[in-house]
Give the backbone structure.
Amino acid sequence: MNADRARHSHVILLHYPILNRKGEVVTTAVTNLDIHDISRACATYGISSYHIVTPIKLQQDLVRKILGHWKEGWGKTNNPVRAEAFVTTHIASSLEEAASSIAAMEGTPPLLVGTSARTMDIGAFSFADLRENDRPVALVFGTGWGIAPQAKSAFDGFLPPVRGPVEYNHLSVRSAVSIVLDRYLGLREE
């Protein structure tokens, strides 16, 4: 059941529009770790596609160079297991472009589900809601200090924040993606 759901699930990592620590709307830098680690998490959970969103051409070129190394270059022949993780990784200029790409893959628009370290007042989804819905799902993660308010109108709703038992709550996006994917699609021994 989870494998079927994973085939209709997607991850979007937003680098714009994002808030910085002062609450200003910015474009954050793409990091090599986010490209690698989130691609590997998506492959582990059978996610259909991973879209890295940045409007900055130089950042897009960097992502394409890294992906080229793993999809067609020396990385593919030297480490085929690692290379396999990048097969479904893509670059997009905007959230709208990523969502359109997913709609084209699926034949229908995805349910855009945001994530945040803060509780959001825009629709709420539980992981059970996502597993039971019939539409494809695109989980959207922000970088920096979170997704800017102007982007939130595109979302169908938000998942609750990933929280631990203490007050501190500032996970790397790589960690948050892995935790969310496990809660959504992970196999349970219970």
User: Anything to note?
Assistant: The chain is about 40% helix and 15% strand. Residues 2-185 form a domain with the Alpha/beta knot fold (CATH 3.40.1280.10). The mean pLDDT is 93. The radius of gyration is 16 Å.
